[in-house]
Design a protein that fits this description.
With 195 residues, this protein is α+β, with helices and mostly antiparallel strands. Helices cover 39% and strands 15% of the residues. It has helices at residues 6-16, 32-37, 58-72, 94-99, 117-129, 135-142, 146-158, 182-185; strands spanning 18-20, 45-47, 53-56, 77-79, 87-89, 162-168, 176-181. The strands form 3 sheets. The protein has a 3-stranded antiparallel β-sheet with strand order 1-5-4, covered by helices on one side. A two-stranded antiparallel ribbon has the order 2-3. Strands 6-7 form a two-stranded antiparallel ribbon. A hairpin with a 7-residue loop joins strand 6 and strand 7 (176-181). The radius of gyration is 17 Å and the shape is globular.
Length: 195
């Protein structure tokens, strides 16, 4: 059965535990794309007769919007947490995954992690903001350029310091992914960490 609603996507993730957003031959994990589309090749665009982009395919529209809706509703943990590509973690596996960091699950526990100067500045800015923030906001808060900040955000996601928290459409232009401290976002799941 193909996944058709965000609720079905959350239930599917609870069944599989860990997944990628899109298929990747380098990782033996299911993907949300496959659950939605029922096939591996990612057919993302509808094009006109000249080959110009018209819109996302219905499957891509679902996957693209759910990558933000799932973490916004805490139905999934989404980010660069498992691989160098977007992955989904079922809420039931958040605590066991986080326990691998050796940190205690408090929002400021990132201070015990091995972080570079920019990574620490980004994490501190996210902590001080007290809410999910966009990469643009983080750049402005720490006074850094886009490339440096993006590299730090990606590294902080791999270290389970930051995670995706939904979408912000208040900035001009494209909407932006919101990032929050992993331990703050998932605090309810991190109260009791396994050994």
């Amino acid at each position: 059965m193909r996944v058709r609603t965000v609720e079905q996507a959350a239930a599917w993730l609870e069944d599989v535990g860990l997944a990628l957003l899109y298929p990747n031959a380098d990782y033996v994990l299911p993907s949300l794309w496959e659950a939605v589309a029922g096939r591996v090749p990612v057919d993302w665009a509808i094009r006109d007769e000249e080959g110009k982009f018209v819109s996302f395919t219905p499957e891509m529209e679902r996957v693209w919007s759910w990558k933000d809706a799932l973490p916004a509703g805490r139905l999934a943990c989404v980010g660069l947490h498992l691989a160098r590509t977007s992955a989904l973690v079922a809420p039931a596996l958040v605590a066991p995954l986080y326990a691998l960091t050796g940190r205690d699950g408090a929002p400021a526990d990132f201070r015990a992690a091995e972080l570079g100067d920019v990574e620490l500045a980004v994490a501190e800015a996210a902590l001080d903001a007290g809410r999910p923030v966009t990469r643009r906001e983080l750049r402005l808060l720490i006074g850094s350029d886009k490339r440096t900040t993006d590299r730090a955000v990606n590294a902080l996601q791999r270290k389970l310091v930051l995670t995706n928290a939904g979408r912000d459409s208040t900035e001009s232009g494209w909407s932006s992914t919101l990032h929050d401290l992993f331990a703050r976002r998932w605090r309810a799941k991190l109260r009791r960490l396994p050994a």
